[in-house]
Structures are given as C-alpha cells and as structure tokens.
Specification:
Length: 411
C-alpha cells in the first residue's frame, strides 16, 4: 500500500523507552490524604472485587474458568510480566517467528499466531520492543518473510491510529468516512433486524464458519484474524446489517479491543471507507482454511458426525443423512438453516463495482486473498506441505507467494 511504502522508506522505528525507576513511579507523599478527603470512595489499599462492581454471581462464575478450547496461551493473564514471557516464548523458546507467515491463518491452538494483541492493546508490552526482538532474531537466527510480517502487522496497527486521528469520530458514523451525503457505490440502506443480529452474535446463522468463530469469541474473548474478516463480511455484506452492531459487539467482547483498529477495520470491511468492496465467500473460505472441518466441529459440536463433504454446508444433506448424523438442519432442530440464502448474491455485489464477486474470492487486510481450494487434489497437496507443522490446519490452503516482503529500519 502507499502508506506502507512511504513509511518504510521515510520512517525509522524508535527505541523502546527506558524502564522508569521506582522513585519516578512513587506516589506523592500526600496521596493518602488526598484520597481520604475525596468523595469518590477511592482507596489505595483495597482492590475491589467483581461483586463490588455490581456483577452477579452468574456473571462471576462465567469468567472464573477458562474454556479449554481457547486459542490464548496456557494460564495467560494480563500485565507486563506475562506479556514479556509470551514474547520470549513465541519468538525464542518455541522458535515460531520463522514460520509466522505460513501459520497465521490458523484457527486452533495458541501458536498459529503471536497472540501479542491483548497485551499490546492494554499497553502491557511495547510494539517497539517486539520489533526489536524481531530484528535481533533476524540477526541471530534467520530472516525471512515471516520475520518481516510480524513487524508489518504492527505497522497496520499504527495505520489505524493515524486513520482515526485523521477522520475523528467519523469512524463511528453509519456512513463511515464516506460522509452522509456521499453517492459512493458502497453506500446502501442498512438492515437492523434484532433477531438476525442476535443470531449472528450467538453463532446461530446456519453457516458453520461464522457460527464457530462467533461462539469462540463469546466463550473466550478471542478470534483469529481470518475469522474476523469472514464474520465482518458476512454481517455487513451477506446479511446487510448495520456494521456498527459488529463494531460494538467486538468492543464489548474482545480481549484485544483497540478502539482504532476495531472501528477502522469494521468501517473498512463494511465498505464505508471507500475503495473496493471485499466480500469473503464464507463457504469457500471454510474449505480453504478448515478443509477437514476440525475447527467448526470444535465449536459447533452438533456437527461432529457430519461428513467432511457437508460439514461446511450441512443444509445440503439429505433427510436420511441428517438422521444418520444425528444432526437435523432447520428451524428448531439441531442446527439452524442458513440465515441468508446461500444461492443468492448480496445486492450490493451486483452493482459491478464490488470485489470478491468472482467465485467469492475476497481480499483481506494486507492483500490476503481467498483461494480456489476445495478440490481433493488441492487438499492433498496442502496436506503434504503442512506435514510437520502442527500450527497449520488439516488441508489448509497455501498462502499466496505474491505477497511482497518490505523492509524496516531503526533509529
């Protein structure tokens, strides 16, 4: 992108700031007096519990344990200590940086991607430190597209901060940065059906890839980047629901919520920043990135007995096969019917200006395209490439080799 090229040509990555001393972080001597004299019921010695903050027993119970299916690192917690431990573990101990580009589109397990995002979002770790560690890794071990790509993802994070700075609160408007009076081809009348929006939130749309990702988000507060692109496209293009419901729900549920990246990505995914409309065909994406159905079965256990051929399109099963699989599809049955007709192209894609319409090939963040997978031969070739790489899904499509590596430099 022009932004990436200009930044990499003209900008240097700064050094991480020095760790402040204990004296620099010390509280003012009269802090206790100030707090005790205030009327806000604050305390410097007592940390309120969830019950003190108004949460019910059921609310507290729901977050007392971590779902065993989570893609977050084992025993994770907030704060700088674990953040630095994760950086050390991912880059150095497990030596995973060199394969990041090949595994980053996975959806199961903690090591298909860095999982640095929650700690970055909360300021627990510096992006400059991560970039420095990537450069040190390149100097001491190996330099390749994967080592560059982690720094490239940090650049995207900065892009959306600048994007929000430029456009201000327009990133929250229904018309996005296009403007209310815009006649842009992506502008459209939005739906706001509460039942449809709730079905999307609950993972009950009848599209397994969408449902699995939404259930993972609700249960764990995390979702893969591949999943985020698909569920955004599905809500805003296939379902044509007001995209801000998606941004708001992510703000409420994501562990790694970041106001700039979240709302910038949602506005962009909905086509409200202009440019090319990018629709992800969720069925094709399912077959490209979860060909064996391991991910959708993990989060949609009602599909556990459905054959691979139908696991991403269960509505195509015959009544007899549904009986055999103990998975009847339809209203009020084991698994819902598709919430939108899978054989109908969304209206917004029929204007001749949208992208991703030819066979459902969608281009995602950083130029990522959905592939033409799904055939037995393609799957077999991908299985051969994935041998020995536990962080790639069964039969997961190979990433495009045309995604070009850039460069970065430090002060």
């Amino acid at each position: 992108t022009p932004f990436r090229n200009k930044v990499e040509k003209n900008c240097d990555i700064g050094n991480p700031l020095f760790v402040p001393s204990s004296d620099e972080l010390a509280m003012p001597k009269d802090a206790k007096d100030i707090v005790s004299d205030s009327k806000c019921h604050a305390s410097l010695t007592y940390m309120p519990k969830l019950a003190d903050l108004g949460y019910s027993k059921d609310d507290i119970a729901s977050v007392s344990t971590v779902d065993a299916r989570t893609a977050m690192p084992q025993n994770y917690r907030g704060g700088e200590t674990f953040a630095l431990q994760r950086v050390q573990d991912y880059i150095w101990n497990k030596d995973l940086l060199k394969v990041y580009f090949d595994t980053r589109n996975g959806m199961i397990g903690s090591d298909y991607s860095t999982k640095f995002a929650p700690w970055l979002a909360h300021g627990n770790v510096s992006p400059r430190l991560i970039a420095r560690e990537c450069r040190r890794y390149e100097e001491e071990r190996v330099e390749n597209k994967s080592t560059y790509w982690v720094v490239f993802e940090l650049l995207w994070r900065d892009y959306f901060k600048f994007f929000a700075k430029k456009h201000g609160d327009r990133i929250f408007y229904l018309s996005g940065t296009l403007g209310k009076e815009s006649t842009h081809v992506n502008k459209r009348k939005w739906g706001m059906d509460p039942k449809h929006i709730q079905a999307w939130m609950d993972g009950m749309t009848g599209y397994p890839l969408v449902d699995a990702n939404m259930r993972e988000l609700k249960a764990t507060g995390f979702m893969s980047n591949r999943g985020r692109q698909n569920i955004c496209s599905f809500l805003t293009i296939d379902m044509n629901m007001d995209w801000r419901y998606g941004g708001d729900y992510f703000e409420e549920t994501l562990l790694d919520y970041d106001v700039h990246s979240n709302w910038g990505n949602w506005a962009s995914g909905a086509g409200m920043t202009g440019g090319r409309m990018n629709r992800f065909n969720v069925v094709k994406q399912s077959k490209d990135y979860d060909m064996g159905g391991d991910y959708v079965r993990l989060w949609c256990p009602e599909l556990k007995n459905v054959p691979d051929k139908f696991v991403h399109e269960p509505w195509k099963m015959s009544d007899i096969l549904m009986e055999e699989c103990e998975c009847k599809v339809g209203p009020g049955r084991d698994y819902p019917s598709p919430i939108v007709d899978p054989n109908v192209t969304p209206k917004i894609m029929n204007n001749g200006r949208g992208g991703g319409g030819r066979g459902g090939r969608g281009r995602g963040r950083g130029g990522k395209q959905g592939g033409r997978g799904g055939s037995g031969g393609r799957g077999n070739r991908n299985n051969e490439r994935n041998n020995g790489n536990s962080n790639r899904g069964r039969g997961q499509r190979q990433d495009m080799k045309s995604l070009k590596t850039g460069s970065y430099k430090f002060e």
